[in-house]
Amino acid sequence: MTDDAPRLTHLDASGRATMVDVTDKAITDRTATCVGYVRMQPETLALIVAGGLKKGDVITTARLAGIMAAKRTHELIPLCHPLAITRIGVEIEPDDALPGLRISATVRVAGRTGVEMEALTAVSVAGLTIYDMAKAVDRFMEIGGVRLTQKSGGRSGDWTADHATGAEG
């Protein structure tokens, strides 16, 4: 960015928090993918996979919760722009090695600002939903590893994390 280029900031001229003005940014296709996990006892994972919890289908419910949360990110995160999201995909897969469930969310928009916060919100709320539905059988579950793994589009271009180290790649 050059010295005379407009800076994106959440502070106005008086130093008060404000929503970034993205009026002059180009509308581009933007995508973000985030991941996370819910670690649990092997018996809890087995119950979830078998559909044996009293609260119902944990994976389907958590997927839906993640999708719904991504659509409402601007209501949850201060100064986040409301976006006309064009696609939200939330995948939840059992991982016996964890043991637990791995969560991935990909969000897409044609807009002036990115969708990283929406993808992060989808993963976080899906994880919280899993915890809520299974807490009666396993209060030691751990939600973690929530992070951005890929983004594309916008002024800053494409970015991918090195999955082994979490470093930019």
Mean pLDDT: 88
C-alpha termini separation: 21 Å
Silhouette: elongated
Number of helices: 4
Poorly predicted runs of 5 or more residues: 1-6
Rg over CA atoms, rounded to whole Å, is 18 Å
The major pleated sheet works out as: 5 strands, antiparallel
SSE pattern: EHHHEEHEE
What's the helical proportion of residues? 25-40%
Count the strands? 5
Query: How do the strands of the widest beta sheet line up side by side?
Result: 2-3-1-4-5
Structural commentary:
The protein is of the alpha+beta class and 169 residues long. Helices cover 27% and strands 28% of the residues. It has helices at residues 42-50, 58-71, 73-76, 116-134; strands at 28-39, 85-95, 100-111, 142-152, 159-160. The chain has a five-stranded antiparallel beta sheet with strand order 2-3-1-4-5. The chain is elongated and about 55 Å long.
